[in-house]
Amino acid sequence: MEMNEILAVSGQPGLYKFIARSQRGFIVESLVDGRRLNIAANARVSAMSDISIFTDNEDRPLVEVFESLRKVSNSEPTISHKESEEAVEAKFAEAVPDYSRGKVHMSDMRKVLAWYNIMIASGVTEFKMPADEE
Q1: In this structure, how many other beta carbons lie within 10 angstroms of the beta carbon of residue 132?
Q2: What is the pLDDT of residues 12-64, one digit of tens each?
Q3: C-alpha distances out from residue 112 to 46, 48, 76, Å
Q4: What is the Cα–Cα distance from 27 to 109, expressed in whole angstroms?
Q5: Residues 77, 79, 80: CA angle, nearest 5 degrees
Q6: Do 24 and 40 meet the contact criterion of CB atoms below 8 Å apart?
Q7: Averaged pLDDT of the chain
Q8: Helix spans in the chain (H)
Q9: Edge to edge, what strands does the sheet with 6-9 contain?
């Protein structure tokens, strides 16, 4: 599964896999429970390949952050996003030591950890940017 097929839909919990276009938007499938939803064309949707995290140098693609989390977690789920702020920040800093302390909020860190755990639980084991079409 490519990272540009995994979507975050504003107002909907979890992550979704793109299935097909429909007349009024598109159809997605939840990575958590497999239910399919019709998402309106005007909904705010972000592909995992389009999201990045602020760092002290330049923005780091979310796919690279997931790969760093995979390495520090030995390809296993990481801590829950519901852990204490100190534990969440420590795990996030272990994976992304140069994240921008002024721009990356606790809610962002919690969301990244939750998304990583959803993807690991759904069988995603490689985090790579989609291949460029020539």
Answers
A1: 5
A2: 889 999 999 988 999 999 999 999 999 999 999 999 999 999 999 999 999 99
A3: 13, 10, 15
A4: 28
A5: 100
A6: yes
A7: 91
A8: 62-72, 85-95, 106-121
A9: 36-40, 25-30, 16-22, 6-9, 45-47
- pLDDT tens-digit readout, 84-94: 999 999 999 99
| Residue 65, both tokens | 């952050």
CA distance 97 to 69: 11
Give the span between the Cα atoms of 119 and 57, in whole angstroms: 27
Distance in angstroms (rounded) separating the CA atoms of residues 130 and 128: 6
pTM: 0.90
* Contact call for residues 28 and 48 (beta carbons, < 8 A): no
User: Could you tell me the sign of the dihedral formed by the alpha carbons of 55, 57, 61, 65, in that order?
Assistant: negative
